[in-house]
Design goal:
This protein is an alpha+beta fold. The protein contains three helices and five strands, in the order αβββαββα. A five-stranded antiparallel beta sheet has the order 1-2-3-5-4. Strand 1 and strand 2 form a beta hairpin. The longest helix is centred in the last third of the chain and has 15 residues. The chain is globular. The termini are far apart.
């Protein structure tokens, strides 16, 4: 999946476009709920940052996930790694070119659900 395809998936599924909140960084896009809470962050990083050999730049997305799911798939499933630059207990880094579209879509839905504002019951 390309970065553009990922952004189209988020737009089609959740009607959300990335914003670029980091000064002078027009590569790192944040996907947010209306509340402002992040459910994803797309970045272009060196493949070394996720344990690969080489200096090639790759597109990745960080997604929130349940710790037990992270334990079972990070480093096991193709293209799924412990989070780069975020809490490794609650976030995954997904290589968009390595991971299949179905898995990316599934992880995106988990992240969206885990980060949305909960309605408090009385």
């Amino acid at each position: 999946m390309t970065r553009g395809e990922f952004e189209a998936l988020v737009l089609d599924t959740y009607n959300v476009r990335a914003d670029y909140p980091f000064e002078e960084d027009f590569e790192t896009g944040v996907f947010r709920h209306e509340s402002g809470k992040w459910f994803g962050i797309a970045m272009n990083i060196s493949e070394k940052k996720i344990g690969h050999v080489g200096n090639r730049q790759i597109d990745v997305v960080n997604l929130k996930c349940a710790p037990e799911v992270i334990e079972s798939i990070a480093g096991v499933e193709r293209g799924i790694y412990r989070a780069y630059h975020m809490n490794k207990t609650h976030w995954l880094t997904v290589s968009l070119e390595e991971c299949d579209e179905e898995t990316i879509s599934w992880l995106l839905s988990i992240s969206y659900d885990l980060t949305r504002t909960k309605i408090k019951r009385r």
